[in-house]
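User: Please run a holo structure prediction.
Assistant: Happy to. Please share the sequence and the ligand.
User: Here you go; the ligand is zinc ion.
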Amino acid sequence: MSSAFKLFRLQQVDSQLDQVRSRLAEIGRLLADDEVVKQAQAALQEAQTAMEAAQKELVRAEEEVKSLQAKLKENQDTLYGGKVRNPKELQDLQLEAESLTRHLRSLEDTQLEKMVALEERQSAVRDTAEALEGTRAQRAVEHRALGSEQNKLASEAERLEEERSADLSSIAKEELKIYEGLRTTKGGLAVAKVQNKTCGACGAELSASLAQAARSPSELARCDNCKRILYAG
Ligand SMILES: [Zn+2]
């Protein structure tokens, strides 16, 4: 087994580990991210606040109607009570009754509007509460799926790490150092496969002697351009 082949195998394991770890990190972020639930909660809270405000407005409108009804009753009691006989006073009371009645109609219209507004707010609360419940249920399904993927990936990572340790035992320290250095500086890819006499990583054409060197069982050949370790396959 050539040095380049051992490193190539190590590279394959490390690339898989990189993928598994990156997905695990992403899953961690997804599990921690409760933004959609928070937004749905905020929407419900907003709808509830609006409904409470509408309730208060309706109560106020009802009180105004009651108060005016009481005034009108007082006016009618005086008007038809028989104690007032002066025609001027009676006429004033009659005019007051008309004015109060007009005002009462207007307040009753307002009361009706407030009732309709409250019903709309109540319906909005029901809708947003339902949306929150739906969001939570969906999150629960997602969490279960992510949790199960997380478990699978964790055992996959464990298996790859064992494989990696086994591979490491047969690799020379100096070569491993070069490999690790390249992994750090070359975006995780230290070993490039030779494809049609070119470097499989950067695409540079290899000289005949370099292509030949890449087949050496003991020496490590490096791409002239990207400096990665070449594996002839
Ligand atoms: Zn290259």
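DSSP finds five helices and three strands in the chain.
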